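Cross-posted from the bioinformatics board.
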Amino acid sequence: MKEYSVVGKRLPRIDSPAKAMGQAKYAADLVLPRMLHGKVLRSPHPHARILNIDTSQAEGLPGVKAVVTGKDTKGVKFGGWRAFTQLIDQYPLCMDKVRYIGDEVAAVAAVDEDTAEEALDLIRVDYEPLQAILDPEAAMKEGAPRIHEEVERNICWSRFIEFGNVEEGFARSDYVREDNFSLQTQAYAPTEPRACLASFDHAGRLTIWTSTQCPYPVQCQLAAALGLREGDVRVVQPFLGGGFGAKFELFPYEVCCSLLAQKTGRPVKMMYTRQEEFSASRTRHAMKIWLKTGFKKDGTLMARQARAVLDGGAYTSFGPTVTFTAGFFHTLLYRLPNYKYEGYRVFTNKPPSSGMRGIGAVQPFFAGETQMDMVARDLGIDPIELRLKNARQPNEVIPKLTTVNSCGLSECLTKVGESTRWHERQSKLPPGRGIGIACAGQQSGGAFNWFRTRLAFSNARVRANDDGTVVLFAGAADIGQGSSTVLCQILAEELGVRFEDVSIVAADTGTTPVDIGTWGSRVTFQAGNAVRAAAIELKKQLFAVVAPKLNADPVDLDIKDRKIFAKGRPEPSMPFPEAVTAAQAANKGKILEVAGSYHPEGKGIVSPAYSFVAVVAEVEVDRETGQVKVDRLTVAHDCGQPINPMSVEGQVEGSVHMGLGYALTEQVVSEKGEMLNPSFLDYRIPTALDMPEVKIIEVITDEPEGPFGAKEAGEGCVAPVAPAIANAIYDAIGVRVKDLPITPEKVLKALREAQPNS
Amino acid sequence: MQQRQRIIELNVNGETHTLAVEPQRTLLEVLRDNLGLTGAKRGCDQGYCNACTVLVDGKAVNSCLILAVRAQGKRITTIEGLSHNGRMHPLQEAFVNRGAIQCGFCTPGMVLTAKALLDANPDPSEMQIRRAISGNLCRCTGYVKVVEAIKEAARVLKTGGAA
Ligand code: FES
Ligand code: FES
């Protein structure tokens, strides 16, 4: 591996002292003079027609400054799917119909939160309840009532993938099996309930500080919703208390907050309650998956066929991408000659589902990797060997979809097996104890331009000052994953300066160049490439000025430790600050500032690169209570060249924590469209006591497309946790649970069914 | 609606503040809204996430669950009171250096909960650490590096590195 000075180092994050000392300001912490507080009135019905809204009493309440309903909006729908405008389907405030419990109906601005809350109670809405459709399979039936009038059979999006010939593949298989899997609704549950603060200036320009992962798409959508020009809307991301996909889009409350600020001429702040964050945001798609797979006796994978039905909830959100990736991921891990997929995302009267950490990955990988274990047992092949036999290798093409460059899957499998002494222990542990394996892979950001932006997905500007400091301006948003630190490392490495010389201004559409946002593990890779491009350009400009002074050709120059010199000849050299001064002088005092960009041009429709991971879970199962205890998770992860190994570990640990919750405890429970557990008491994310030991094994590959060989890190690790645990449970007690979460009741039921007479 | 306000005295981070507050205001609200001490976070306002943790007479409490008027006459420490002139407490340093902070929303509560633990028990076992922070929810870190950071801070504090 190459030797780097800043890349690959375990550096503390640049923003963590501010966070440790309580100085970091999140959206809810912001205050402006004469600020009002806003609240949203939400629908109590899963599906109903709005007959009338009477706001007069609320408006008369002392302290209330404005009330808005759908009539006060432009009456246009918003959404991110500018590439397929039929998918833009949400109003800032419902016009004629409400489609889930929590849908936005009206909003109020008042002098304080309590008054705003009180005003909500005074708004009278007459509804005509409509039949609620809660089950996606029922919603797809011919003649089912429609949730969106123009959408037939409530099918929001369908996606088909096909290559090879599955019929032939199955016919040539010695062994074929079919299984059904069921995946629950998971809540994002970031610890920060979202908030925003909107303020208009004298010229009618809006600034909004908001809990978002995607300032630029929010800027564009907000401008459209308000009838403003994009350039008149500035979106600033303060510190963000976790996203995981939950804060990826423009949300109706941000439009309402802006409208109220416009109407009152005063800044307005809105803060979600915890209950709203659970029930009026987004969820991970619940999914039903049918999976059929064929193998040769020797374990060669011959064909796979899958059908997925996704519970979409009330609006499109990022669902179409999930519908696609839920089919794509069945093709990623193993060499697969024949494949056929049909996926249907269906509207229901529930909160909209969207892309959550491990987007459209955790569901297919649970199905695929659980089934892989069953196949291994049936064919009498060791589960690791079966996977190794079929494992994806570097530089392979997945027909019609993508190319995989670097791929360390086989190494992940081998290493995780060695580390856990797999071969000595699998099927050989004492009763009640088990060990299971599963794999996954993840994209390094999307390549498909769903937002139809004319600009490159990632842009960066770099300014060099003559005191030796360097400032990076990047639109990319750090949402807690540490991207600002990683981008500074990439810049420092390429520029040959110290990490502490670099500072960053990020995620502010008023001052930083466009970035498509933080989703799908794209920032290190795509924004990292943009930053690197800017650094290369900066060096080019510096070298052009410095070359004559060092009696060298610009192409022969290099920079290291803040000194510019000719390659292979350390002296004479010129210190970086002096070089910047010289460059400024040569340009009549012009600031030395350059731009760089990256767009995944010509990288297929999925992603330019993929990470891989293999996880081994070790569990104890209590046959009496059905309780599952996870003792250890060993994770071998190929993320290319880690830019900051400490951050990578943190991402992996957080991901497996989320995967653990998904496997065992987390589930949105709802009845008649109402979420019954919208609190941290009733919705159980694992605590410090539930967390097992996590052992991480780095598998380093060199991704040719990535900055310094880096690619996606951590997100992919959420997906294999549940199947690894499910497979370990089978190893422990010999029963399969194919629907998540694996609760004690389901374990006991499976045990009873396995031994009907005992 | 507005209730009659009461004049209270709060001792926060060693300073006494005289404040007019409505009797139903929680300590969290008063710290954040009246004193601008936004380090304590409103993660749920229901007592289930511990993002709002502050120290009251050295004990970690959920500031969203106690009324400000009830906190009179007690010593309150918020995360802002743990560092001095930008010099971090060993716990804060350990959280930074060990990578225990991701989004940071849970961090003030975690650090203060750990502070209360280490003040009472300078040499906690891993289990005792996990138990102490088991009410502090974190969606980012899986608690791995948080536990490591608390262990490290305990070591540093024992060898006299107290801030
Ligand atoms: S805000 Fe107090 S416990 Fe969550
Ligand atoms: S660091 Fe994000 S919640 Fe703990």
